[in-house]
Amino acid sequence: MNFSLQLLSGLAVGCIYSLVAVGFSMVYRAMGLVNFAQGDLMMIGAFIGYSIIVNLPGLPFWLVVPLAAAITACLGYAVAQSALWPAMQRGASQTYLVLLTLGIGIILSNGARLVWGANPLVYPIPLTHETLRIWDYPVPAVYPFIALTMVALIAGLNVLFTRTWIGLSLRAAADDAQTASVMGVNHRLASAISFALAAGIGAAAGVLYAPITFVSADMGMIGIKAFAAAVLGSLGSIPGSVIGGFVIGIGETLGGQLVSSEYQDSLAFLLMIGILLIKPTGLMGRKG
Amino acid sequence: MILTRASLAATVLLSFASSAMAKDFPVGFFGPLSGPAAAYGSESLSGAQFALEEINAGYLGADKIKLIPADDTASPGVAAQAVQRMIDVDDVVAVVGGSTSAGTAAAIEVTKEAKVPQLSPLAVDSALTQARNPWFARIAQSSTAWAERTAEWLKNNKGARSAYLLARNDNFGVPLAEAFERKAKEIGLELKGRIAYEPSSREFKPTLASVASANPDYLVLWGYYTEAGLMAKQMAEMQIKLPFYVGSAIGIDQFRDIAGPAAEGTYGLLYYLAGSIETDAGKHFVQKWNERYHRAPTQYEGMGYDAMYVLAGAMKRAAASGGVTKQKIRDEIFSTREFQGATGPITILPNGDAERPLPMAELVGGKVKLDTLLH
């Protein structure tokens, strides 16, 4: 029973890592940029979710997720248009851009402290403390929401990138910006939309993660593990990010029990290092 | 008539003279005012500021204390920088802080070098006073005292035969765990396991699974309230039913928010529990706090209040014996004996440690109830 519970727990945490990792990969593909503010955008989304719950009591939780995601996506769009794109236009180096995203993350974290305060916040909804019984296993009530949102988001992204004009434009701009612009795709707009989408997906992860733990300004630290997941799966690959998130989530939970719970966090990174030693391009990477 | 006018003029002149001689003594305060340990710093600061209002209303005569607070974000590096700035820029005569052992450990190197007395309301790490730093004292008991009293209480009051120990892997959790383990061995309380977890962890289910398989009588945690809350919650999710000792977390609202219904029935040793001190000072504090905030003071608010009063008492005695200097404040802090504080009588020992009563409490019906006042 313990093993099954640990597996479910690892899957749930893995979903959260996957969603944040997908954000890393989307921005990397669209802008060639490692966005270290991704974890902090997730944190802002979780705080926005808290404000929605407090100010609109009675709103179903499944509506809180897209609402917080949409608001955070708007914030992401503004960040991309006002800070990142101008820096890229001026030919900023990768080092500068990474530092810029780190700075944006710190501003978001300190801004959250100013707006929501320093103390950890708990979503004041029954879902936070309820458990369900699935095949006689006690499972936190938020787990089904996490699973359904994960499936819906991945399916939605698949449809977006394969069946819609806007999604195909985003892919075209990401793959070859110059050719895409000849075909009428606005690279700046495409990049900003990709960044906004990544922020929205991160926010959804934050809102789903909050009932498992709590919301605090340092919640963005989860971004480090999500980045590891994205690298493990091949940075830039959305399926790779999803797989990487599950590998890290399940690896640290089961590894924590089977090997040593004292080094649970280190195990996730050991796993990443081990896989990258065998396959340096990541799980979904191609040679060359 | 002439006499009356003359005496009035003399009174006015004297009052001008005394206000001209009155001084504002800058005193620094540092602790985490933001981040996951914010409750420790922000609440002890509130208590210190509350005490300061009373102190500045005449406790030091015409003199006043000007408090200079700083947020160390629970980071040792930030704590050291903040204290250095207070000393260099604000020329503080004393420092109250820190609220975490790690932050305090970093700051005492600065205050020792600058020869500025430092009084911590909350830091418990035994190592802080082992070096017998003459410039550092605290009103919180050492981690050794906390851990030993908890082990004795489990064995003698609860009849526990075994315990499992979880500790935050830092200089807050590890010294407490080591002292608990030593005492447990001494009194015959079996330790079924001990795990030091990463301070940044939020997922404790693998750890809790190990605890459940060992089946101890009690689970004892030396960690922060956020971790205590998550562990209680995750134990409930895993349907692990074990009496859970969570330390001072039991007195923190956020612990109860995070743990939810799983907080019920947990035990904890508090720095202070409002209503447990029957002295005049204890009653005065609770009454005045209730009048202002319409609620009882928290343990950290009580400790901040008493730290400020112990310092002000030392400054008052220093003033009476010739003048308020850093050296004299230090000497008077270390001569504090049976100070009638709101959190109980406080005695500062020669090594800078303190003797005070410690309330062991249980969470019953969502309220913190006194189990035993440990001396």
What can you tell me about this protein's structure?
The complex is a heterodimer of chains A (288) and B (375). In chain A, a hairpin with a 2-residue loop joins strand 1 and strand 2 (137-140). Chain A has helices at 2-31, 38-55, 61-89, 94-116, 143-163, 165-175, 177-182, 187-209, 222-233, 238-258, 264-278; strands spanning 131-134, 137-140. By secondary structure, chain A is mostly helical. The relative contact order of chain A is 0.21. Chain A starts with a helix and ends in a 10-residue tail after the last helix. Chain A has one domain. Chain A has a two-stranded antiparallel sheet with strand order 1-2. Chain B has 375 residues and is of the alpha/beta class. In chain B, helix 3 runs parallel beside helix 4 (101-114), helix 6 runs parallel beside helix 7 (173-187) and helix 9 runs parallel beside helix 10. In chain B, the strands form four sheets. Chain B has a five-stranded parallel β-sheet, sandwiched between helices. The N and C termini of chain B lie far apart (62 Å). Chain B has two domains: 24-140 and 279-356, Rossmann fold, CATH 3.40.50; 144-270, Rossmann fold, CATH 3.40.50.2300. Chain B has 13 helices and 15 strands. The chains are: A mainly alpha (288), B alpha/beta (375).
